[in-house]
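Minutes, methods subgroup
Present: GH (chair), OT, SY

1. OT presented the first of two proteins processed in the latest run. Sequence and structure tokens recorded below as shown on screen.
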Amino acid sequence: MDFRITIIAALVLVALAAGFWWRARTGRAKLVRSGEIVDLGKLKATRAGQPVTSFGKKATLLQFSTEVCSICVQTAKYFKELESKNPDLTHIEVDLTDRMDLAAHFNVMQTPTTLVLDRTGKVQARIGGAPKLNVIQQELAKLEIK
């Protein structure tokens, strides 16, 4: 009986540690040094039924979502609000539900995943999970978006 309690306690501690680790990583920006420039043609993103053909004047928030992601809806709403307040910012949302090729290419392990792009489409930062508001503001400030 004593052995089983020890095993259960160890499993609970491991689960708690994993949860704290995951929470600490989610929503934080990670600097991307790959220098990758996103190809809008390969994304096949649309807006109001028309293909997206350009990046924002100063920055673009590229959000990867899925149909079953409830957090993605709130994230997109926030990004659209930011976009409406700033003409130099563009928000592009791509549904990965049927685009496993993009999920693999961009190494998307959770949704939403947001890539912060500069005006040329170069990936500057990556945010996995629901982005923290101050994190988005800091990343946009780096690209001179206020």
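2. SY then presented the second protein from the same run.
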Amino acid sequence: MTFHKNFIDQTPEAKVIGIGGSPRKGGNSDVLLKHILKGVSENQLVAEKVHLCDFQYQGCIGCERCRKDKICTGLNDGMSLLYPKIYEAKGLVIISPTHNYNVTAWIKAFIDRLYCFYNFDNNRPRGWSSQLAGQGRKAVLGAVCEQENKEDMGFTLDAMRLPLEALGYEIIGELPVFSIFAKGKVSEDMGILQKAEKLGSDLAKSILMAS
């Protein structure tokens, strides 16, 4: 419980953590994340970038210990390093390439492990609330798809948006990018990069207005 008390009762700060869900660094998702966070930084907010592939962690195992402990205590892995970063930052950016019509396995496991931030009652069906709600939390989402149609992106953005909204985040904007696959190719499209930076700027301004 010491780990829990180190951060869970603190007020989140006006800063942003950016989560990269691609298994390859320097790729298109990485470029988008970099430019979104650039837009954040230009508004004088601290912006930290995290590559999920740098952390060893697994998906939720459904042990339900978090219902009592209010944080994941059933697993001891890299998520223990990420929980404080998520909890302490009002702003969140998540970028994922489309893998088989959905987010990457890294993003899916990461989002599932945020389950520990829910509070449940003992009714059937169970009522629930989020420990992260009502704190002015904001988020921006991005997805990169090799194909050119929205249908081919599938559930990628939905799979990020719906869980974050349930946790209490206001989604400030989304950036879907199509028809790009070659590593880092998006860096040649100034229009997309400008949209990414504006999205980061919008996120920062929204956080500052709410602080």
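Chair's summary of item 2: Helices lie at 2-5, 28-41, 66-69, 79-88, 105-112, 150-153, 156-167, 190-210.
Next meeting: continue with the remaining queue.
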